[in-house]
Fold this sequence. Notes:
Helices cover 19% and strands 42% of the residues. The protein has 2 helices and 20 strands. Strands 7, 8, 9, 13, 14 and 15 form a 6-stranded antiparallel sheet that branches. Strand 14 and strand 15 form a beta hairpin.
Amino acid sequence: MRKYFPFSLMLPVVFAATLSAANLKLYMKDGSFQLVREYKVEGDHLKYYSVERADWEEIPAELADLKRTGAEAASRREILDRQAQQVADEAQAAKEERAEIRRIPRDAGVYMLDGEQLRIFKLADAAVHTNKGRTVLKYVTPVPIVAGKSTLEIQGERSTNPVGEKRPEFFLQLSLEDSFAIVRMTSQKGVRIVERITIAPIVNEVIEERDVVPSFSKQLTDSGLFKIWPQETLEKGEYAVIEYNEGKVDARIWDFRIE
């Protein structure tokens, strides 16, 4: 995960670049140049402020290569303009992000901003299905370990939380310092399968297999607020944002579907 860094940390670098760019090279036709702060043509003479000697000097204008000097100066102005625009864009993005953070509750859970509306996703009830039946998943106590294969499921073949966006952005306030992901679920009769579980006999090693959607994530606060969104557009189907502790079968699940 990458942490969120305040925008102000970037300002000294940009400021230093601006200072060094204030000077420019005044080229001569013989290929040499003078480092100057500014210059101006007056009739057939050219006056410039020498950075080296910290004073104004004057030479015949015909000795200077003003075309090359002007082209380089224009190029440097273009670079500075791009840098300034980048700084402005990043400042605006940081401002918008701070506004988003203020709108997200600090209670553990999954949220989405839909325009001016805050969507709060309900934690799904889950169960572990083995050949001996279903065991409701309790987040405060571990699931009894039974060797063999099983599935982690939630009820219903379709989510009641439709999402119209193809690359939705979710805000996840962690309840624990766990891992998290977006997963695609498989619908079967009456249920959706979140993951398949294999428990090896004797050693009781737990292997959990999920259809994880490649996603980006960004930490927004030190208190465990993250933003997570898919790298590519999602196909129509059943999905969930999950928070989990690998090998413990204790996933917290917030389901949704792409229309």
